[in-house]
Amino acid sequence: MFTKRQRIGRTIDDLQPGNKWEETIPVTDKEILLYLGMSGDANPAYIQHDYAAGTPYKRPQVPQLMLQGMVTSAVSNHLPGPGTVLKEMHIRYDAPLYHEDTLHLKLVLTDIRPQTEEVTIQAEGMSGSTRIFSAAVIAVPPYPWKPATEQAFSYDNF
């Protein structure tokens, strides 16, 4: 993985406002438990059915930062894609997503700023007709890949 050169996503010159990407993602207990184990987050709102039953939500929720990770993964893997660096994210959670629900994630590129080499992407997560979250992401798309022999620096010290 670390030694093989990976493909890069779309550079700023290859993007235009209105570019879209979307996918439906089933969120299983397995993914939730993997996330919780990796993050060390043991919030009872995410894993304890008896605790969640006594809250207004009634059932354990998918952790909000796990949902945010799905957005960053989609930006890094699909729009603009590999090589993208995220700079800023504003997110609003409107409703919970529950264990074993399905998330429909949609990204739309809304703005390109060549002078700062940044793009703005609007993200929305839906479950059925319920909006789970909306987000605005500012990112720097990947730069064109060049072999080391084409770089503008010298190896004189070798």
Automatic annotation (TrEMBL):
Chain coiled-coil ranges: none
Domain MaoC-like: 22-120
GO molecular function, one term: (3R)-hydroxyacyl-[acyl-carrier-protein] dehydratase activity
SUPFAM superfamilies xrefs: Thioesterase/thiol ester dehydrase-isomerase
GO biological process: fatty acid biosynthetic process
Name of this chain's protein: Enoyl-CoA hydratase
